[in-house]
Amino acid sequence: MNPLRLLPLTLALTAALCAPAQAQSLLQLVEAASGYDTVWQAAKLQLDAASSRAEQARAGLLPSAGLSAGVSRANTEVTRPKLELNATTQNAGLSASQPLYRPANRIGFEQGQRGIDLARAQLDAATQDLLVRVSQAYFDVLAAQDTRHFVQAQKTAVSEQLAAAKRNFEVGTSTITDSREAQARYDLVIAQEIAAENDLRVKNLALDQLVGMTGTQPLALAQPLQLPQVQPDDVAAWVQTAQEQQPAVRQAQIALDIARLETRKAGTGHLPTVDLQAGYNIARNPNGTVLMPGVSNRTNSASVGLVFNLPLFAGFSVQNRIKETLALEEKAQADLETARRNTAQATRAAFFGVQSGQGQVRALEAAEASSQSALDANKLGYQVGVRINIDVLNAQSQLYQTKRDLAQARYNVLLGTLKLRQAAGALTPDNVAAINRLLVQP
User: Among 9-18, 52-61, 296-305, 397-406, which is the least confidently predicted range?
Assistant: First the structure.
């Protein structure tokens, strides 16, 4: 079952119809994207096609029937004795066949069923990828909004410091250097604000394009924020889950199963086939026949029997086909091992990335408090004359840079938990819903 179907359909309608001025939650935008994203829709259609293809393979095990009918007219001349006959022949027939022993058809049916499993694994991968892509775009917008907010706050602080430096210069308590340093820092912040505005515009456009909406406004994280802990806190457990659930591993395992079935199918080229066939035919000659001219007749015939077919020699094609499928089977085995190794590595990297991110958040929270204390101390020192203007400006810059880094680190941890679950193949809409509950509720 597609995990996105667990989300109420009404969320998609709400997200699609809501006004641009209304803020959207992460869950709403995920649901909107599921009805718009062409990558996910292509994977869904691939599953539908695989189901139909499997039913085609089932036809090789079921009976088949056909109806035929025809009419013909023949002109027959006999020299001795002299005879000329223009006769019409009418015929109709019904035939049916039931495979009794066709091992290749049975294996083809099994391959069709495994093909459904393969398409379902591909859809699971596309679903998890969609969840991560929407979440990434969502938090990219929030991070860009935070950057703009902190730059604007820094601009306000630098502007106040610039005004203070000008006043002090006018009264003679500071030099022109303080004013010029403050002006240079103010000009730099203006440039940073322009860049932040453009970055936010680009991030908003990316989110709009992903979810098929215009003017999206993501809800911000609620404050204070308590970041969720990774459970279980054991990298080996995550790797084990990845080896069992990761869609890439599942696809490689199913591909190996299909390759093994193909080898078995190739081996059936030497085996016999047995079919049950039955038929019923009607032939009518309204004008008679050459033997009985002018006498209308009708012939009914019914038949039933077994058809046995045993291949004897096919120019070594069966042997070479088996060699080909064995090589492809070994390739599928190698692809499976590669998928397992890559998945294990990606899962370990994602796990340690989340752990590192959580440690970084704690360090930046401490750095934020320290930077605020340093700024307050520098402002006081500037007022009493033991600090110069550049000290205050540097402290302001450090504080707002720390605030930006802290906000980004929090977003990275939340995204990291989703990417960890994606790497392990365990990401579901419920995990997104858990993060959605951390947002400011409208």
Answer: 9-18
Range of the domain at 241: 3-36+102-270+317-436
Is residue 334 one of the residues assigned to a domain? yes
CATH of the domain at 208: 1.20.1600.10
The C-alpha angle 61, 65, 70, rounded to 5 degrees, equals 155
pLDDT in tens, 333-368: 999 999 999 999 999 999 999 999 999 999 999 999
DSSP assignments along 285-350, one per residue? ETTB-SSSBT--EEEEEEEEEEEEE-----TTHHHHHHHHHHHHHHHHHHHHHHHHHHHHHHHHHH
> What is the pTM (predicted TM-score) of this model?
0.84
Long-range contacts at 288-296 (CB < 8 A, ≥ 24 apart): 288/85, 288/87, 289/85, 289/87, 290/76, 290/78, 290/83, 290/85, 290/87, 293/83, 293/85, 293/87
pLDDT tens digits for 114-128? Answer: 999 999 999 999 999
Q: CB–CB of 418/135 below 8 Å?
A: yes
Total domains in the fold of the chain: 1
Residue 424 belongs to some domain of the structure: yes
Is 133 within a domain?
Answer: yes
Residue 75 lies in a domain: no
